[in-house]
Amino acid sequence: MKFSRRSFLMRAAGGAALVSPAARTSAQDDSAGKGQVGCLVDTTRCIGCRRCEEACNLRNLMPPPERPWTDPGVFDRVRRPDYRSLTVVNRYPGSPAAALASTPHTFSKFQCLHCLKPACVSACIVGALTRSGDGSVVYNPGICVGCRYCMIACPFQIPAYEYAEPVHPLVRKCEFCADPKRGKGADPACAAACPTEALVFGNREDLMKTARARIAARPDLYLDHVYGEREAGGTSWLYLAGRPFAEIGLLPQPDRSPAVRTEAIQHGVYRYGLIPLAVYGLLGGLMWRSRRNRLPECPPGESSPAGTEEEGK
Ligand code: SF4
Ligand code: SF4
Ligand code: SF4
User: Fold this and answer.
1) In which element (H, E) is residue 137 found?
2) How far is the CA of 262 from the centre of ligand 3 (A)?
3) What is the pLDDT of residues 17-62, one digit of tens each?
4) Residue of the nearest CA to atom 3 in ligand 2?
5) Does the global pTM surpass 0.85?
6) Of 94, 120, 97, 92, which Cα lies nearest the Cα of 107?
7) Separation of alpha carbons 76 and 227, rounded Å
């Protein structure tokens, strides 16, 4: 969608006025995560078959891949989700766990983690991204003005923009196969397709118990850490691994969601009656700082630029 500078400003100002911070942050209260959905990714069980990727592609009517799903050449570089692939499976050299030392690779699936306090939602000036009742962070293309603040704010660099789309570019990311795609109680396409139960969909609290039980049963196999329990304020997607998470693309994150910072600024703006657009430069600067966690594509095995100001783990 092309916008003139004038139409962008009008839409942004109108949207900012319509979507009060109180309304948009109501989905980010401290009870977030209770009674809500999640998905547990057990990287020790992933065999790199990419059926999850294929199922996601079909469910979301994405264009066919450039290379066949079974082509192992895609693992030659570490990929990131983009507007053509809402989820990717990457291969990292080395065993997924000490107990599996004979296994040469670790595979790990990556997508939007559906944060409990999503920075993308608090950064969106028109409310095009919202956190729904079950915890899915979903996108409304009819409201989006294309400002891409969500891309800057996300601590995992997930939202992707359709730069190649000349007429109506959208922001794309995993929406957790939210209703009506998933249907009430049904698994998301990726979890339903996984042949090894490396992906388990369910209630987030139950998944935390499952994760803890797996760790307790096999302390030789798993790190005593569930990635996503607290990272970036907690996420709906949770990860188990037998090696440091940073080695498989899951970088340390502070326990505090970056949304807290952007919300504080927005609330101040509304309280003192300032025009929101006048301070978005400041917001942008703060969110730019959060990009220090940026994880660029790189060949497997090369170290990623990990590190944040506050390393949570
Ligand atoms: S991972 Fe990024 S895009 Fe997904 S909910 Fe969190 S902040 Fe938003
Ligand atoms: S939940 Fe749905 S949209 Fe998200 S990665 Fe899985 S299949 Fe794709
Ligand atoms: S379908 Fe399951 S086992 Fe296959 S790549 Fe995806 S997460 Fe791994």
Assistant:
1) strand 137-139
2) 35
3) 444 443 444 334 444 556 699 999 999 999 999 999 999 999 999 9
4) 174
5) no
6) 92
7) 25
